[in-house]
Amino acid sequence: MDLQKCELFDLAKQIHVPVLLIVGSEDETPPITQQKFYDKLPTNHKEIHIIEGSEHTFTKPEHLKEVKTIMRNWIKRL
């Protein structure tokens, strides 16, 4: 599949597994765009978290700590 021609929003409706989205508020892809993708996911088991002040890579210790906490809690609830 040519990813340049792939419309991710159209494919979202095919995802029926649990989904955890963790995004940075300063990511190149704005959180509002990621929220729109999240809203199209048909699964009931989904979460989105926005790490304030973080870019895409979560390199600052405080952002990594938050990501770790979110992921730990997510796994516990699965």
Which features characterize this protein?
alpha+beta; disordered N terminus; 15% strand; two-stranded parallel sheet; 78 residues; single chain
Secondary structure elements and their pairing?
Elements: H1 8-11, E1 19-24, H2 31-40, E2 46-51, H3 61-77
Parallel strand pairs: 1-2
SSE string, helices as H and strands as E: HEHEH
Q: List the strand order in the largest sheet.
A: 1-2
Q: Describe the sheet with the most strands.
A: 2 strands, parallel
Question: How far is the first residue's CA from the last residue's CA?
Answer: 31 Å
Average pLDDT metric: 90
Count of distinct strands: 2
Q: Give the radius of gyration.
A: 14 Å
Estimate the global geometry from the Cα principal axes: flat
Report the portion of residues in β strands.
15-25%
Tell me the number of helical segments per DSSP (H or I, 4 or more residues long): 3
User: Class by helix and strand content?
Assistant: alpha+beta
Q: Domains counted in the coordinates: how many? A: 1
The percent of residues in helical segments reads: 25-40%
Low-confidence stretches: 1-5
